[in-house]
Model the fold of this input.
Amino acid sequence: MKKTPCRHRISKVLSVSLFIFLLFSAPIFAQDEVASEEEAPTEAANTDQAANPADTEAADVDGDPVAGKQIFNQNCAACHALNRKMTGPALANVETRLQEEEGLGREWLYKWIKNSSGLIASGDAYANEVYNEYNQAAMTAFPTLSNEDIDNVLAYTAEPPKTPPPAADVAGGGAVGAPTGGISNEIVLGALTLIFGLLVVMLFLVNKTLNRIAVANGIVSEKEKTEKRTPLWKAFAQNQFLVLVSVVFLLLGGAYFAYGWMMQIGVDQGYAPIQPIHYSHRIHAGENKIECKYCHSSARVSKHSGIPSLNVCMNCHKSIYQVAEETLEEGKKEYGVDYNKEIKKLYAAVGWDEENQKYTGESQPVEWIRIHNLPDFAYFNHSQHHIVGGIQCQECHGPVEEMEIMYQYSSLTMGWCINCHRETNVKVEGNAYYEKIHEQLEKKYGVETFTAAQMGGIECGKCHY
Amino acid sequence: MMNSFSKIIAVFSLGILLISCGEDAREPNIQYMPNMYEPVGYETYDEVDFLPEGTEAQKPVDNTIMRGWMPYGIENTPEGKEQSRTLNSPLMANDSLSIAENKANGSQLYTIYCAICHGDKGDGKGYLVEREKILGVPSYDDAVRNITVGTTFHTMQYGLNSMGSYASQMNTKEMWQVSQYVMQLKSELTK
Done:
């Protein structure tokens, strides 16, 4: 009896401390809010201040950075980035850099931009130094750019980089907001299963207790009374007709499911392995509308569609070294992929030194996992179907441009091939190759159009030899 | 009572087991007779243990010429590029039929490989440029570059600055066809 008050006291202490904690926690947060509100204006002021020098600087160089950006993107961006070495050097604050490090003024830049090879030939020391530093890649001359245009570009390069904090805040807010907004289906399902399980257990417990009470009270349930009759299963077993019918049904049902299961052996429909480098067809073929054959170029001319070699990736990724901010966010949130890391994997495999914009020569083969794979005894030719037959990639491979992770869309079974050969009309118009056979077949079948099957497209030897 | 309870649990777990037995999309399915499915010879891109880098795909042996490709003979240097300026397309002096074919082929290939950056009209405003993924793509009528059919071929053969080489995606004839088509676009732009 002595201990009980003690326990009460502890719980009281706990509840009081919780109360106090809650009481204080609110003001603490409130203070935070106030603090952040106080910070915000100072930040804004900071950016204002940051913007002001830019204005003064822009005024200093007498150029319009907006027009400069346009000229820069049209003419310079193929080889120059602001803060990153590309084919040519990074150009952020190029004028001040040259002024401070080399003592070269704008006049030098005018000369260089309008005719760099002339400047090199004239023996200018710094011109030759830059030329040699960048693998003797000659810069295109831009005699069409006026001094004013160059001023504008220089104004653009002198602009401070856009303040990223607001963008980061927005992104951060989105990331925080997401988990509270959508609870994944799996969690909901799990919770439902748990509740269901608990209900079942409770039902049993209630039933058990009720039975116990019944037994204790000496009540005999209806069920026990009827038990003296022949049990149902015995009655069933005694009726031979029923047994026969149910056995037949069981066998048929079993055969149906066994057939279904056996027919899917060796069929890889829906196979979607994780590739060593995450490549999103959705982004490349979908959003950016790159032709399938840009990468799978051998589908035009050979049996194989071809796994693109990494130099094909580098055609674009030499300049595209990171994805757009929102694409990165989307990838992380929806697919759990950091696209920028995947680009780095590509650079590592192809041996591209991003710092120096050079190939190191140390490359690694990427172990792509083949998805579409016909058995060795079946022959299939991509160029025959795509170029001659005029069949689009999507007809067999499905909506690839929507696939984040590539999967096998069609079953690629023989039945599937045969079906298409029976249903698809051969495109004979304007194809000299078919002219003679078309005439003969027209006579033979008395038809205008004919299918691949009528042309021998379902002969065994067409694909199996 | 407990007996029927455990029975129900058993049925439940069996059901769950059956459901979970569904195909795993990350793994390939089983096959009936793998030795009929799997090739005996080495497949394209196959992993093999006796070749350099452990892969079947190898570069052609030095001093051999790939089918469909012709030796170019001009070096990948600024001087080489100037040298290419005077080159003529070997497809030029053909009959009218092959001119039409060259044009159709060139236009098709251009759409596949070039238009995504250089634009359908060759004005440097392809879809990737519009989306600001790749910048600074020049128009074909750029007076300073003053491209010719030879320099176009040279650039496709070796790549230039940010542009990669396209010699792995097209053979020599196809590259000339595209070069000719580019010239046609240029003349349309300068009109």
Summary: The longest strand of chain A covers residues 352-353. The mean pLDDT of chain A is 77. The two ends of chain A are 94 Å apart (CA to CA). Strands of chain A lie at 352-353, 358-359.
